[in-house]
Amino acid sequence: MLDGKRILLVISGGIAAYKCPDLVRRLRERGASVRCVLSDAAKQFVTPLALGAVSEDKVYDNLFSLTDEHEMGHIQLSREADVLLVAPATANILAKMAHGEANDLATTVLLATDKPVLAAPAMNVRMWEHAATQANIATLRSRGVTMIGPEEGDMACGEYGMGRMTDTLDIVAALEEFFSTGRPLAGKRALVTSGPTYEPIDPVRYIANRSSGKQGHAIATALAALGAETTLVSGPTRLADPAGVKAVHIESAAEMLAACKAALPVDIAVCAAAVCDWRVAEEASEKLKKPPGDAPPPLHLAENPDILATLSQAGGTRPGLVIGFAAETENVVGNAEAKLARKGCDWIVANDVSPETGTFAGDSNTVHLITAGSSEDWPALSKTEVGERLARRIAETLSPETEIV
Ligand code: C5P
Question: Which atom of ligand 1 is nearest to the CA of 276?
């Protein structure tokens, strides 16, 4: 059932839009309220009148309507829902979502929302298989958008293949699943560290490392998608803040530790950041000048606080489950097991980061999950998939009664 759930149905311009009045009826039969937003193209396939009649609500389709903005601004529209469902999601609207475009009401609402987004793609098989569409789907999934389908079958254009919108009742079932088992971490608080740290030498120079933050951000995205109230404490990266996550931006290890302590208490802590082991003992207050002779200035290093060990040994505020990472270049599992014991954490995700693996800047990761007394080898997965699999494992451990799909 979907009792009391508020669904904002974003309809884009594909032939499958003709199924939307029925979709609205089925969702309402299960207790949901549905409010519709149409793209301009959608109006060619389904009328606002029909949707207004079945939803028993106003239908929104114009970004620049003064009346609508006065009654219900586009930001409010995007927030006054429990979930946004894009159906049908055409190749065009998926591309716009992936690139953050906001040139009509439908895309503006999707960019402005802080709620989970589900999308039911519908398009011709060649458009679906096109590398651009597949890249957009991967981008959206990595940001936490849940895809429903598409399915394989006969298409309105006469071709056969992947790209048919999932049947109405299956979309309804996917939403029910999303609200029941899809959020097993609802009510749990999670903290994730990500990215490198920058340790200042003087006001313009710093010591850092090559971490991209992709793995940590993917874990935060996946935990939030399972319903955890997630804080991401991140060093400087090129990545956008994941949707639905509270992002705290820091530079140094000391700042990261302070931000982590401020986020406590949490149920789950995942330390995926590549924290610099050392900082410059005394940051110069002025830019260091080249010395008059040949000798460069010496850098005296001091050890940084170990955030993972600090959280693992935090006494009464220790998170229920503390997970660290071990980036190793040899004896990966053996070194990770020793690290688990040394730091006092519960699990270690160990990966081989020797340069030939391309793990540091790349999109994929081959990891081993080390827990007390056991070690699991995971296959090569994208960092998004590692995040999703880890989040599911966390959910199974913390909420074993919930079946995770
Ligand atoms: O000791 P090592 O750096 O190999 O340990 C890696 C793990 O410890 C990672 O989970 C990393 O995020 C965490 N770590 C930390 N603070 C440090 C150093 C590492 O949280 N100062």
Answer: 21
